[in-house]
């Protein structure tokens, strides 16, 4: 029996679609404005699996419906479920019906566009470990289109070893746990990166449909911190020569910048003389070139850092004699000055184009290395001054920009030292209660003030030798050396009470009271500090479940 004309008109005007899906997950009927919403006529949908539709609402609708259907214990029972995401109906023959509307499509489009504006990677992963959504940052990083990623297993973008490493974390997310970690992951295209990852389960009442993955590439941060340490180490060496120190600086920078040639030159009149070289391309100390035939001539004219990632496409450089003679595609260089006068240049280059543009951090890194080289070659007596400057730079790289506290990189190194010494210690994870409410009510500026206030208050309560680090957002970690669990519990209870007794003074002189929840654990000999963190995190969640504003131990 055909549908009455008025019903067809209503479906068209409301831009609604009803899909009937059999228990075998095959679309058996489709009515409504399917062309506008799904890009196909109704007849073209019949016989398809919902998985063949590149529509995340349809995919999630099927997942929701299946979760609901599993709850029915009586054969032939009918049911319905409606929420802000959609409408779902179970029919007596075991089939299900999903209702889609243009408003849901519009909302999804808005959410997708918002996700595409985020600087971090976002993906939605279903219970089969397959992609159902990837934002633009993820697509740009992986280099595969959203359409090609849709429905593909996550294993398709990771190598086998890394996938085996993340799958147990997937299982934890599927069980309803929020998962956070930072790890070294290798991709199927051969790249290896450090990622900071957060998995947020997607619940339908008590069931988990999948999870959202929020991913940050922190490879550059890790590399920069390591390079700063290497610079500091090299400059402080007293058992090697100035030439060896500069060679180490050049090679470390080449590894970080992913380039092939590193040079320090001496400029005398119009001559470019190679003083130190880190290169496998036949350039050696003592080689001399006409200054006008080098990119450094252009750099000296700008009197600042000059860089390009593809010289052949750069109008400043493509016709330059250096490009014609050497074909150097990627280049970054800066002047070296002694006593205010140009002494020479520091530059890094490669015959191959650089895939990624130079970041501002990398530009500052080149300036930093140039400063180190200037100091080393000025006078051996000034090495101590270089040590102090690089110590300060390394310290800044290991500190949180907002609070000045040690950051996660410093904390990891500190814990590794304590564990290597087999020293007794306890660790506490501290989290501000209802911090999202503070940001939502007062704004992120007030949230930052609260974080700064809390960092000072915690520091005031600690013993000599204890440290507090900010590890991200509203989370802090306290390490108490030579502290048993009962002693550490006394310290953290004092911290909790001190925070509760105070108040944050805002710019309008009003006050904001906050409380904290604390999870505490004592290091067990032979335990990996990842396991120690896990136990402290478990205790923190116990504190929050128990009502917050308390200390729990694990």
From TrEMBL:
Segments forming a coiled coil: none
PAC domain location: 179-230
Domain PAS: 107-177
GO MF entry, a single one: diguanylate cyclase activity
One Pfam family named in its UniProt record: GAF
Cofactors (names): Mg(2+)
Lineage top rank: taxon: Bacteria
Official protein name in the record: diguanylate cyclase
